[in-house]
Design a protein that fits this description.
mainly alpha; 173 residues; Arc Repressor Mutant, subunit A; three-stranded antiparallel sheet; 3 strands; 2 domains
C-alpha cells in the first residue's frame, strides 16, 4: 500500500511539472507569435518602401526623358507634360490612388461592382482607406454606413451590409 502511495505521489508531481512546463511553453509561443506578427509588419513596410523608392527612380528617369525630349521641341511647352507626370508619380508613389477624388458613394459603387457581392460598412471603409479616400470623424465606419443608407443606389441587406442596386431598377424609377 505504501508503494502505491509513492507511485501516486510521484505521478502527481510529474503532472504538476508537466502542466507548469506547458504553461511556460504556451507563454513563449504567444511571445513568438507576437514577434512574428511584428516582423511581418516590418517586412511589409520595408517592401512598400522599396517599391516607393523604385517608383521614384523610375519617375526620375521618366521625367528626365520628358525634359530632354521637350528641349528638342521648343514649340511645345513642357509644363503640362511635367504636371501630368507629377500627378501620375504621386499616384505611383502613394499606391493609394484608386478612389482619390471620389466621394464615398462614388468609390463604394466602384468597389461593390468589383467585389460583385454585398459588403459590410467596415470592409468598405477599409478598402476605401486603402484606395486613398480619407473619411474624417470619430466613427468613419458609421459615416460610410450613413452615407450609403442615404443614397438610393445602395440597398441595406443586413446590419451595416450594403449591395449595389441594379442600374435597371434605378433607370425605371
Amino acid at each position: 500500500m505504501e508503494e502505491l502511495k509513492d507511485i501516486i505521489g510521484g505521478l502527481e508531481q510529474r503532472i504538476t511539472v508537466y502542466k507548469s512546463r506547458l504553461q511556460e511553453l504556451q507563454k513563449k509561443r504567444d511571445r513568438l507569435d507576437e514577434e512574428v506578427r511584428t516582423i511581418k509588419k516590418y517586412l511589409e513596410l520595408a517592401e512598400t518602401l522599396y517599391r516607393v523608392e523604385l517608383d521614384k527612380a523610375k519617375l526620375a528617369n521618366l521625367s528626365n526623358q520628358i525634359i530632354n525630349t521637350d528641349k528638342d521641341k521648343p514649340s511645345k511647352p513642357s509644363t503640362p507634360v511635367l504636371v501630368d507626370v507629377t500627378d501620375q508619380s504621386m499616384e505611383l508613389l502613394l499606391g493609394k490612388s484608386k478612389y482619390v477624388g471620389m466621394s464615398v458613394p462614388q468609390a463604394a459603387i466602384t468597389l461593390l461592382k468589383e467585389a460583385g457581392r454585398p459588403m459590410h460598412a467596415k470592409d468598405i471603409y477599409l478598402k476605401l482607406l486603402e484606395g486613398g479616400v480619407r473619411i474624417r470623424g470619430k466613427t468613419p465606419v458609421t459615416s460610410v454606413a450613413i452615407s450609403l443608407k442615404r443614397d438610393k443606389r445602395f440597398r441595406k441587406v443586413a446590419p451595416n451590409t450594403f449591395e449595389l442596386v441594379e442600374e435597371k431598377v434605378l433607370q425605371s424609377a
